[in-house]
Amino acid sequence: KDDEKATLTETVVALDGIAIIVNTDSGVSNLSLQQVSDIFTGKITNWSEIGGSDLEISCIGRESGSGTRDGFESITGTKDSCKLDQELTSTGAVITAVSSSKNAIGYASLSSVEGKTGVKAVTVDGVACSEATVLDGSYKIQRPFVFVTNDSAPLSEQAQAFFDFATSTDAADLIRTAGAVPVNE
């Protein structure tokens, strides 16, 4: 929180690209960030309004309290105004629901979408969600994974050793395996 930041230090360890996913039969391949926001707040309700088929849009997302949902809503400006047809408790369930419905749209961490059948990640403002575009900042729907340390208390020897490892290039493959984009390589 902003009022806590005066005594804390934030260290970004990894990044998470939040892919906007649609059914592979949707006919839509690019959306603007504003269109994503308008879809999830109910201002755009039919795919035909944005170049797709004449189908009512079904928004699928994560449950309240999900970190992915919080990141998505913060970035798209949809916090407290997101209108979801389905709130699901796992990323896998979101992907399955979108793959099962031609009119569905959802969001999921980049690593969860890669290689899945029945869904595709659309480009946002013409930029694909990829490790490279998340790292260079050109893909806008992303969130940092952050270590927060207290400036007034030094880390224990063990905590410092873990911090040093997690922020080193040695941790990059582990971070990638866990589904995030490492910032140190």
Write the SSE topology.
Blueprint: E1 8-23, E2 30-31, H1 33-40, E3 58-62, H2 67-76, E4 86-88, H3 91-99, E5 104-109, H4 110-113, E6 119-121, E7 123-124, H5 131-135, E8 142-150, H6 157-166, H7 172-177, E9 181-182
Parallel strand pairs: 2-7, 3-4, 3-5
Antiparallel strand pairs: 1-5, 1-6, 1-8, 1-9
In short:
The chain has 185 residues and is of the alpha/beta class.
Q: Which short descriptors sum up this protein?
A:
185 residues, alpha/beta, seven-stranded mixed β-sheet, two-stranded parallel ribbon, 26% strand, elongated
What does this structure look like?
It is a single chain. With about 180 residues, the protein is of the alpha/beta class. Helices cover about 30% and strands about 25% of the residues. The chain is built from seven helices and nine strands. It has helices at about 35-40, 65-75, 90-100, 110-115, 130-135, 155-165, 170-175, and strands at about 10-25, 30, 60, 85-90, 105-110, 120, 125, 140-150, 180. The model has no long low-confidence stretch (mean pLDDT about 95).
Mean pLDDT: 94
What string gives the helices and strands in order?
Answer: EEHEHEHEHEEHEHHE
Total beta strands? 9
Count of individual helical segments: 7
What percent of the residues sit in helical stretches (DSSP H or I)? 25-40%
The share of residues in extended strands comes to 25-35%
Q: Mind telling me the C-alpha Rg?
A: 18 Å
Structural class: alpha/beta
Sheet with the most strands, sense and barrel status: 7 strands, mixed
